[in-house]
């Protein structure tokens, strides 16, 4: 990752631990990645994975329906507000701002992003090296400001 910002590289390492290696990142891995960069790379990773099942042409109802169907197979998704995350997903994929009425993003939404990444990756067979490729792409996407 030659000229990539070191904090973006650190965010990659922390997210790789979590999503690819299936372990909690170490304190050192988390401390090297500043929170804004970590969240930016996470958001880019979320969008990369969500672009597997979605093109951006879907309606909010279609995306929410897909997320709702995932809830029946992935118990940890049962608390996810599928409508909120459908709007978030489509705005991100389309590259448009969130509606002014969109709830403020907080820790709960970050958790939902992680849960949806895991569930959608599992449903679409995105694992191992392929998941790592999506994650590496998220560092590039973040570095280009396309998240």
Describe the structure.
This protein is mainly α and 147 residues long. It has helices at 6-20, 27-32, 35-50, 60-73, 82-94, 107-123, 128-143. The model has no long low-confidence stretch (mean pLDDT 92).
Topology diagram in text:
Blueprint: H1 6-20, H2 27-32, H3 35-50, H4 60-73, H5 82-94, H6 107-123, H7 128-143
Helix pairs in contact: 1-3, 1-7, 3-6, 3-7, 4-5
Annotation keywords:
147 residues; mainly alpha; 7 helices; 66% helix; globular
Based on CA atoms alone, the radius of gyration comes out at 15 Å
pLDDT below 50 for ≥5 consecutive residues: which ranges?
Answer: none
Helix content: 55-70%
3D shape: globular
Distance between the termini: 19 Å
Short note summarizing the structure:
This protein is mostly helical and 147 residues long. The protein has helices spanning 6-20, 27-32, 35-50, 60-73, 82-94, 107-123, 128-143. Helix 1 (6-20) packs antiparallel against helix 7 (128-143) and helix 3 packs across helix 7.
């Amino acid at each position: 990752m030659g000229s990539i910002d070191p904090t973006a590289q650190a965010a990659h390492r922390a997210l790789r631990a979590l999503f690819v290696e299936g372990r909690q990142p170490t304190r050192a891995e988390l401390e090297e990645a500043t929170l804004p960069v970590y969240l930016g790379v996470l958001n880019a990773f979320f969008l990369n994975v969500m672009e597997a099942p979605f093109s951006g042409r879907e309606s909010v109802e279609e995306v929410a329906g897909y997320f709702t169907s995932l809830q029946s197979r992935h118990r940890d998704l049962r608390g996810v507000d599928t409508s909120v995350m459908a709007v978030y997903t489509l705005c991100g994929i389309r590259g448009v701002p969130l509606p002014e009425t969109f709830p403020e993003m907080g820790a709960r939404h970050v958790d939902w992003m992680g849960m949806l990444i895991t569930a959608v990756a599992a449903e679409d067979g995105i694992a191992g090296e392929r998941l790592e490729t999506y994650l590496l792409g998220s560092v590039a996407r973040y570095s280009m400001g396309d998240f």
